[in-house]
Amino acid sequence: MDPFPVSGAIAGWQKTDETRTFEAKDLWQYIDGDAEHFIQAGVISTATSDYSYNGQLEAVVDIHTMGNGDGAKKILETGLTQDAKTLQLGDEAVEYAQSVSFRKGPYLVRIVAYESTPDTPQALLALAHGVEARL
Hints:
Radius of gyration: 14 Å
Helix content: 10-25%
Strand content: 35-45%
């Protein structure tokens, strides 16, 4: 199963790089400083890929495979701030100005844009729905 949508599968989105995967023991190579938090929550592996939206917006999609849904819930709910907006996506989801995070079963998905445009929230949500459909 490849949960990353291919280029063109979601209007405007292009997958711009190969998917990279990190096992729990190697997660520090990708998210140095926060890897221990994920390991304590039961992360098994993390896969990541870069995307571009209409050549104007760059984003990264991280899919963390956890040992169970409780670990995904723990990570999603850690660090929530008052500007988080809940979404109807997966089992639970939140949106910020430049990111969408959701959990579905044992998966925790974070999509983060590197810049903010008027289309950013809508574009990230479309990409998130595309990922959710493949999980």
